[in-house]
Amino acid sequence: MDVMGDKATLWETGRFVQSDADDRDETGAADTEARQRCAAATGDIAATSALGALLLRQGELDEAETHLRAATGAGDRAAANNLGVLLHQRGYPEEAAGWWRVAAVAGSAAAAHSLGRHHRERGDEPAAEYWLRQSAEEGHVLGAYALADLLEHRGDVGAERWMRTAAERGHREAAYRLARVLERRAVDDLRAASALLTPRATPGRPTTARTGGSRNAGGESASGGKNGGTKGGAKPAAEEAEQWYRQAAARGHQRAALHLGAILEKRGELKEAGRWYLTSAKDGEPRAACALGFLLRDAGDEENAAVWWLKAAQAGDGNAANALGALHAEHGQNQTAERWYRSAMDAGDINGAYNLALLCAEQQRTAQAEQWYRRAAYAGHREAANALAILLLQGGDAAGAEPWFSKAAEAGSVDAAFNLGILYAGRNDDRGAQRWYGRAAAAGHTDAALQVGIAMLRDGDEQAAERHLRCAAGGGSAEAAFRLASMLDARRPPQGQPALGETPPEKDECEEWYERAAEQGHRRAQVRVGMLAAERGDVVGAARWYRAAADAGSRNGAFNLGLLLAREGSEPEAALWWRRAADAGHGRAALRLALLFARRGELAEGQQWCARAVALGPAEVAERAARLREALQQELTA
Q1: Where is the composition biased (Low complexity) (predicted)?
Q2: Which domain holds residue 594?
Q3: Cα gap 201→184, rounded to integer Å
Q4: pLDDT tens digits along 570-586
Q5: C-alpha atoms less than 13 angstroms from C-alpha of 400 in its C-beta half-sphere
Q6: Among the listed residues 351, 411, 452, 423, the one whose alpha carbon sits nearest the alpha carbon of residue 206
Q7: Region 154-177 average pLDDT
Q8: How far apart are alpha carbons 401 and 8 in whole angstroms?
Q9: Residue 70 forms part of a structural domain
Q10: Is the dihedral of CA 545, 548, 551, 554 positive or negative?
Q11: Residue 240 falls within a domain, yes or no?
Q12: Is position 106 within any domain?
């Protein structure tokens, strides 16, 4: 009869976790009660104890107390435990503890657990640990979990052992918390490994705040002891964490389902991730509803995404409110977007203020944008601080902008570090500019890497310059690609036009970088690609790139296209391109036009272009144009 009493818990008070008590089917409960009453009437102590426990579960406390006191007086430890439960429910904790002590001394693990919890609630941790350890060592799952919780609170490394024991015996909260500890350990191990492999440098690139808010499903911190890495062929911490999340989620733990979904989503297993998010969201977890909304949005289902975001936002999730605001803003519903951004702020999400500022800025409501940027910046939003500084700088308040740029940069904003570089460069403080450009470049900022590369080139450090230019060019900077190509171009030996029948050489890295810049519309790169094509005898390719550069406003492109057309016998069309180049200030194009008109006998027109070439230069062109002008003047006066 000890079993019945040991499984009874304080299910109604919520202060103790309910155990796996009473696995009997409730059908036939009346017959069971009748049999126990008959047996108790004959003086059967075990039946009296069982009847008291049954009445206790049914809430009939007065009658239950009578039977439990009778059984307790006869020495039944289960009855003593259950009497403690009853008295605790009635508000007599000290008397309850006395009966729990009687039962615990007699060997009741459930009573030892209840007594340990009683002592912990009163701040007597040594006594609490003693009784909880008794309960745990007797195999009581709630005792193991409560002991683990106590040890974890104290930072004792033994906490994990008992948390694992409780988890292995089916305690879902223990499984969840064990998973959190293991997940944190996996992250710490990864950071430690990265620190060993990566040289120490400037701070890494941060994650920029999204208009719709971040979609991190976590948000809780793990606690507990840390035992280091895996040993003896044990599973990696991350893999074991997933296993325990899965076990807890399968038992209905909504936060475990949320974290399991996040792990699966990160791994690309979106379908299963969605199922766990849905399970958690249906159980009332707003973060899971929010994450499910993002998953649906990414799959193109905005309508259902909005449904889940709405549920999460109504439950107080600021991230979901931000997402709804962004969704409405994308559809031009600015008033609704603003309402949701304000809801995000009310939920404590500073992204709401930042996103509201962005919305105001797009509508040219500068004063309101500044107000919301300030609110987010004061709350620690680094991108809001950067945006506020830009707004102040645009308004002519450079002195007010600089502290906000500095605050954002020190908080990890890469854009703010780059903007500080621009600010220092504008003051001709090259040292300060390079310090901030260097920090932004180390964090992966393309334009900052370009600026550092240019500075290194200026200082004669080609090796460092090439490294930074490659980073910037790889990040999509056309100017960096052109400068890198120019550096590589200067190193290679000159290549003439291939002989008749000779196979044209393959494109080298230099030309590939020129082409990458040219394809992004870089005019000087387009001219250089055209020149390289002409050197290979590719007239069509050369003409295409020269024309692209000329159409984009390159006077060199127009001049070279004119040369190419003249060589191909299209002198009238060549003259059109030379005229365009000369009108844009190209001295050689003006000289070519002067020679062209001189050959045609249009001496006065030729003289005019000679004068233009003299004015435009450079020196050798001006000298040749002056001699030609004198010759034309003599011809006219002869």
Answers
A1: 198-220
A2: 590-637
A3: 24
A4: 889 999 999 999 999 99
A5: 13
A6: 411
A7: 94
A8: 66
A9: yes
A10: negative
A11: no
A12: yes
